[in-house]
Design goal:
four-stranded parallel sheet, binds iron/sulfur cluster, alpha/beta, globular, 310 residues
């Protein structure tokens, strides 16, 4: 089982959630370390270096893990790891999958999301740089996962995808990234693994609009159909936010219905939680009890669908 310890800002938390989701793991806090019973757990410590105190805290977690879980694999990632090349190399050497960040920042201002307020600067790594990092991976790394905050802003998706000579896929894609040209490029590169995580967030047009997401369910469905045209056996996953403030029972039922239509391989559920500064923070929240009921309803739909697929 994979356990992700998060330190630092909301963006780190977002990345920790992403890591946990990719490995079917969970995000935990320091006090959970000693409660874990796995014989050989895998830990990611998503570190922070904003102050020396924060950096010290992230490193302290590593010593606690070593104390309670001497057989654990420890992956020290995040900001403080940039000063820890030696440790990082040792970690990477144990990993079969390597996350490579190709883009940072977002200015989309989805109404629930804090990221544009703290990472508004858009940075895109150049293709040669990314290819060099891929080339430098140790032989044990079998798969490259290309990640970013919002890959819609990454202008070299096609050029990069054409030139990767190791098995790879993208950590997460916004619907707008899915174009005919992009899929053709991916299709032409036999190293591409057809795993598509395409963020949906809601299957209701009214809620999508209130979330300030810039697509409709019909447009999203068209993107998924296009993916399946090029990759009929593609694995398709998504994120869903449950309990957005304006989400009514009818809106939520629309989401359930839409999820059934798409027939995802995996849905990551995020119960809505208000983030200060965001537009949704000022909206009247719905109760935790309603959110929990909806989460349970969605989980049971996904469970029943999975049982049918077996
Ligand atoms: S696209 Fe929306 S949810 Fe994703 S990082 Fe940007 S603002 Fe946040």
């Amino acid at each position: 089982m994979v356990y992700v310890l998060n330190y630092g800002c909301r963006v780190n938390y977002y990345e920790s959630e992403q890591i946990a989701a990719k490995f079917n793991g969970v995000v935990i806090v320091e006090k959970d370390i000693k409660k874990i019973k796995d014989a050989e757990p895998v830990f990611f410590v998503n570190s922070c270096a904003i102050t020396s105190k924060a950096e010290k805290g992230s490193r302290y977690a590593v010593s606690i893990i070593k104390k309670y879980h001497p057989n654990a694999e420890i992956n020290f990632v995040g900001c403080a790891s940039k000063h820890q090349n030696k440790l990082n190399n040792a970690i990477i050497a144990k990993r079969e999958k390597a996350f490579i960040k190709i883009q940072d920042g977002c200015a989309d201002f989805c109404s629930y999301c804090i990221i544009p307020y703290i990472r508004s600067k858009i940075c895109c790594r150049n293709v040669a740089d990314v290819l060099a990092e891929i080339k430098a991976q140790p032989p044990v790394v079998k798969t490259i996962i290309l990640s970013g905050i919002n890959l819609t802003y990454y202008k070299h998706l096609n050029e990069l995808s054409q030139n990767i000579n190791k098995p790879f896929y993208f950590g997460s894609l916004e619907p707008n990234c899915i174009t005919k040209d992009f899929l053709e490029v991916l299709h032409a590169n036999s190293n591409f693994i057809p795993n598509f995580h395409v963020c949906l967030q809601s299957g209701c047009d009214e809620t999508l609009s209130n979330m300030n997401r810039h697509y409709t369910t019909a447009e999203y469905l068209a993107k998924i159909n296009l993916i399946r045209k090029y990759f009929p056996t593609a694995r398709i996953s998504t994120d869903i936010i449950v309990g957005f403030p304006t989400e009514t029972d009818i809106n939520f039922d629309r989401t359930l219905h839409f999820i059934k239509i798409i027939n995802f391989d995996k849905v990551h559920i995020f119960p809505f939680s208000p983030r200060p500064k965001t537009a949704a923070f000022l909206m009247k929240p719905i109760t935790n009890r309603i959110i929990k009921n909806r989460v349970d309803k969605l989980k049971s739909l996904l469970y029943n669908d999975n049982e049918k697929k077996k």
